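Shipment paperwork, digital attachment
Item: protein structure file
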Amino acid sequence: GYYTQVAKAALAGQWKAQPMWGGMKDGFIALAPFGPGVTKDAAALVEARRKAIVAGRFKPFSGRIVDNEGQLRLAAGALDDPAIATMNWFVQGVVGALPKQ
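Attachment content:
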């Protein structure tokens, strides 16, 4: 994985600091096991989406996106990486709020 490569490079004196933005395909993000209340159909749908994300066929932050306060955040298209990295809001359906700074 990524961290193993970084550790080996550091030990060899070859590591260089650089920004890294990884996702499911890179092994940076993984799904936790499903709880007992998740149906087989729901688990199959999530697994199909996971495979589509890894294959680059589905972008989770795409389409019309509304936040949980009703504000339109994206009319169409997909959020780019900088927009995702600086998100300070929850999508519609998520209950809660981020701490105010």
